[in-house]
Write a structure and sequence with these properties.
The protein is of the alpha/beta class. The protein has two domains: 2-225, 3-Layer(aba) Sandwich (Rossmann fold); 235-325, 2-Layer Sandwich (Alpha-Beta Plaits). 34% of the residues lie in helices and 31% in strands. The longest helix has 18 residues, at 173-190.
Length: 326
Amino acid sequence: MIHIENIRKVYRTRGRTVTALDDVSLHVAPGEVYGVIGRSGAGKSTLLRSVNMLERPDRGRVVVDGADMLALSERDLRVARQRTGMIHQHFGLLSSRDVAGNVAFPLEVTGTPAKERRRKVAELLDLVGLGDLGRAYPAQLSGGQKQRVGIARALAGSPSVLLSDEATSALDPETTGSILALLRRLNRELGLTVLLITHEMDVVKQICDSAAIMSNGRITESGSIPELLARPDSELARGLFPLPPPPVRPGTTIVDVTFTGTDPARFVSALARTYAIDADILAGAVEDVAGSLAGRLRLGLPGSPDANAAPLAHLREHGLALEVSA
C-alpha cells in the first residue's frame, strides 16, 4: 500500500544543510497499522509528509496505493491526495466553523453537492462518536473530541490511507487510549492502512502491527512487532519493556529473554524440569501488545554461559530472543 524506497531530503538554510531523511526505505502492507517512533528531530514528520508530497523528497520513490507520487502531475497529485487522509497533533480545526462545518470543509473543496455533504458529515460524526455535537464549536470541545473531529474530517474523502502526525501527544493517557482504540476500529472496519508517527512507545504497544525506529534521519530497525521482539538486541524490545541494568552476580549467567505470544511461566518451569536447575527471575516486564502477550524477563542461571549452553539452546529453540551476560 505504501512503498518508500531510498528517499533523501536535505534542507538548506543560512549557509548550512540539514539531512532530514537519509536513504530511508519503508514498506507498509495494505490494512496494516504501522508506527514510526523516534525522538524530536529524528525525521519522522518529514517522512510522513513525504507520503502525500507535502514535503517533496530530493530523490527516491514514494508509491501510495499504486501511484508513483513523485511522477504525478499537479492535477493527478491533488486527486491522489484525496485518497490519503491526515490527522494532526494540534487538531488544525477552523475555530469559526462548527463541528459539522469542519468535517464538511474538504467536501466543499472537492465540489460535493450540499445534500451529499450533509449525509456524509452525519455518517462520519456517528462513526467517531460525535453524532450529537455537529452544532458545537471547537472551543466547546475537549481535546479528545477535537481529535475525533479531526479524524472525521480526514475520512471525508473516503481515503484508503490515514496518516497520523503525533495525533495523541497532546492528550492525557485515558483520552489517548480512546483515540487509539478508535483508530484501530477504523482500521479494521474500513480496511484503512494507517501510518502513524509518535515518540511514545505505548502507542506502538497498543495498536501497531509493525514499527520502525528512526534516528538522525535514518531507520535503524523495522519489521513486524513479533519479528522485532524475536531479534536479540532489539531496540524496540528494550524500549517497550525496559529493565534495570543487569546485576553483578559472580558464578551466574544473566539472561534477558524477549518473548511474544507465550506465557513466560511455561518456559521457565520447563527449563527447571528439563535441566534440574533453579532459574531465578530477577526482573520482568510483561504486557499485552496488539492483542498478544509479550515482554522481557531476566533470568539468573547458576554457572557460566558455557556451563549453561544446553539450557540456552533450549530457550532459543523455542523461538526466544536472548541476551546473555556472565
